[in-house]
Design a protein that fits this description.
heterodimer; A: 414 residues; Aspartate Aminotransferase, domain 1; Aspartate Aminotransferase, domain 2; 14 helices; 15 strands; 39% helix; globular; B: 119 residues; alpha+beta; three-stranded antiparallel beta sheet; binds pyridoxal-5'-phosphate
Chain lengths: 414, 119
């Protein structure tokens, strides 16, 4: 059961990084989140008490280890309302998208087919499709965004694209730069009602840490995400795909664990999802991910969403206050928006502002955020980005504001 | 808080960079990128009898990259190519006179490295 009263200061105490780095204002969770004690403990406990290989040994410890691993798969499946065998563990979200590109698209798409994506995608949801374009001769169509930096998904119908040729629509659920949350459920329903018979992939790397995901409700065919952005360890990600799609997909890697019968000349594949998980699994990371799911469920995604929406409102006010000096790249309204703020001081490079913020222990990212297509559309080379998560507070945003004053002072902005 | 990195020298060159702009009929005209941050610099050089007669640059980057180009221009114009080649990165950084973190050292050396590669 989720907690009823959500106290951000108490939440912060669950994360040892803040105790060990007093005064730090961590505003880079979009890149990677901090870890609560129970995730750290889950990994340590596993090493100290239960460690053994999985899916092999018959002895007790190996069985326990396997159970813990498969139990984590169940937790993840339940967390997004999927079946256990629809959860494929990969290295991260990027690998999950590559698996759908090479395992599915490469097998089924051909010259003349169209893949629809958006101008706000992360490189990880662009480059695999550029590769498919090179290999299969498909066309790519990028959906634009509107003035408020929301996805203009109806633009598809005023384009010259023959709707019958669209075989895949791949959209980020939330932009890692703009903070825009795309209404993927509505988009998929709208497109299907218009007769588009494509598969739908949702890049959930930025949504799953913050909002409740139900893949059946969204009705997507693929959903990809990373553990390290949702309080879990690095090294594991997930590709969810509908059972019937996984059944017809090609494995990407070959070797141990993904087989049934091997002879000198041939081999047959294991059932899904093992077919896509070659070699020894990422045991400790998977078990840590299971603990992260527990923590998110215990805290309650509704509570997290509500708290973060308060932060978004507060943040938007802060940026409004500084609008004479700072351009904000993202929706100006708090609805369907993450607490992610990409910005630039006018005429000042993102590296300069990030460097000055860092002296006030305010950790923000600067650069192109793996979104060069979007940077080009926004006509900037880089932005600074402050991104918040459940452990952040209004005080953190106040400190960001004070650090802004420093930039203004040092660069003598009028 | 220390303002070491953003000393007057950096801010002055950033606001008012020397030899900033396009050099017509340049003998060398190269564009380089700092992959870490996507900063871009274009360096133009006019040569005459083994000497750097003219130098200019344009940068899409941070204050330190810009100041680095500006300070470099004052340093190399009128010098023999052979002598310019002898300027080590350490020597050039000393010329700027500011302590940089490793990440920002790359910015400070952007113009310098581009020029050294081109000559
Ligand atoms: C929207 C989006 N998709 C995909 C990724 C890739 O995630 P990973 O680097 O964990 O594979 C990211 C990471 O920043 C992201 O923000």
């Amino acid at each position: 059961m989720a907690q009823t009263n959500f106290n951000p200061l108490k939440i912060k105490k669950d994360f040892p990084i803040f105790k060990n780095n007093p005064g730090i204002v961590y505003l880079d969770s979009t890149a990677s989140s901090q870890k609560p004690q129970i995730v750290i403990d889950a990994v340590t406990n596993y090493y100290e008490k239960y460690y053994a290989p999985i899916h092999r040994g018959l002895y007790g410890l190996a069985q326990k280890s396997t159970d813990m691993y498969e139990n984590a798969r169940q937790k993840v499946a339940k967390f997004i309302n999927a079946e256990n065998e629809e959860i494929v563990f990969t290295g991260n979200a990027s690998e999950a998208i590559n698996l759908s590109a090479y395992g599915w698209a490469r097998k089924f798409l051909k010259k003349g087919d169209v893949i629809v994506l958006t101008e706000m995608e992360h490189h990880s949801n662009i480059i695999p499709w550029i590769m498919i374009k090179k290999k299969c001769g498909v066309e790519l169509f990028y959906l634009p965004y509107d003035k408020d930096l929301r996805l203009d998904y109806k633009k598809l119908f005023s384009s010259k694209i023959d709707l019958k040729r669209i075989k895949l629509v791949t959209i980020t659920h939330a932009s890692n730069v703009l903070g825009t949350i795309n209404p993927v459920k509505e988009i998929i329903r709208y497109y299907k009602n218009k007769g588009i018979k494509a598969k739908f992939l949702v890049d959930g790397a930025q949504s799953i840490p913050h909002i409740k995901i139900d893949v059946k409700d969204i009705d997507c065919d693929f959903f990809a995400f990373s553990s390290h952005k949702m309080l879990g360890p690095s090294g594991v990600g997930v590709l969810y795909a509908k059972k019937e799609i996984l059944e017809e997909m090609d494995p990407l890697f070959f070797g141990g664990q993904m087989i049934k019968i091997v002879t000198k000349e041939s081999a047959t594949w294991a059932d899904i999802p093992a077919r896509f998980e070659v070699g020894t699994g990422r045991k400790e990371a998977v078990i840590g991910l299971g603990a992260a799911v527990d923590y998110l469920e215990k805290t309650g995604l509704k509570n997290i969403e509500k708290h973060e929406n308060e932060l978004t409102k507060y943040g938007l006010k802060l940026f409004k206050k500084f609008e004479k000096y700072i351009d904000l790249y993202g929706p100006k309204t708090p609805e369907n928006r993450l607490s992610v703020f990409s910005f630039n001081f006018k005429d000042i490079h993102a590296h300069d502002s990030a460097d000055i913020l860092n002296r006030s222990k305010v950790c923000v990212r600067s650069g192109h955020h793996c979104a060069q297509v979007l940077m080009k559309c926004l006509d900037v080379i880089a932005t600074a980005r402050a991104s918040l998560y459940l452990y952040n507070t209004k005080e953190d945003l106040d400190k960001l504001g004070s650090a802004f004053e420093e930039v203004i002072k040092i660069f003598k902005l009028q | 808080m220390s303002d070491e990195l953003y000393k007057e020298i950096i801010l002055e060159h950033w606001k008012d960079p020397h030899h900033y702009g396009i050099l017509k009929k340049a003998d060398i005209d190269v564009t380089e990128m700092n992959e870490l941050c996507g900063d871009e610099i274009r360096v133009m050089v006019k040569l005459n009898q083994g000497k750097i007669e003219g130098f200019s640059f344009v940068v899409r980057g941070c204050s330190i990259a810009k100041a680095g180009g500006s300070i470099l221009s004052d340093l190399v114009i009128g010098k023999k190519i052979l002598d310019v080649k002898k300027i080590t990165p350490e020597k050039f950084l000393k010329e700027i006179g500011v302590e940089f973190t490793p990440a920002r050292t790359k910015c400070a050396l952007l113009a310098y490295s581009t020029l050294q590669k081109a000559i």
